[in-house]
Amino acid sequence: MKQGITVQERLKDLRTERHLKLEELAATKISKSALGSYENDELKEISHKNLVELTKFYSVSTDYLL
């Protein structure tokens, strides 16, 4: 595991490892634009609700993402 990985990198890694497109994360009910921002914009804050949705979708802990 690499040191100092950001939340943005972790989210993108999870999606690409599973060969998913942003559109396929529609099950999270988070907009495609928000998901794209979460992966690319270091200043974009992820709401608690969306963070929980993403951890459920990927079956990972919030500690893993953060």
Please tell me about this protein's structure:
The chain is mostly helical and 66 residues long. Helix content is 53%, strand content 0%. The longest helix is centred in the first third of the chain and has 11 residues, at 7-17. The protein is globular and about 30 Å long. The model has no long low-confidence stretch (mean pLDDT 89).
> What is the helix tally?
4
Q: Based on CA inertia axes, which overall geometry fits?
A: globular
Helix content, binned percent: 40-55%
The share of residues in extended strands comes to: under 5%
Mean of residue pLDDT values: 89
Structural class: mainly alpha
Number-wise, the strands total 0
Low-confidence stretches: none
User: Cα-atom Rg, whole angstroms?
Assistant: 11 Å
- Report the order of strands and helices: HHHH
Tell me the span between the first and last alpha carbons: 14 Å
Oligomer: single chain
Largest sheet: none
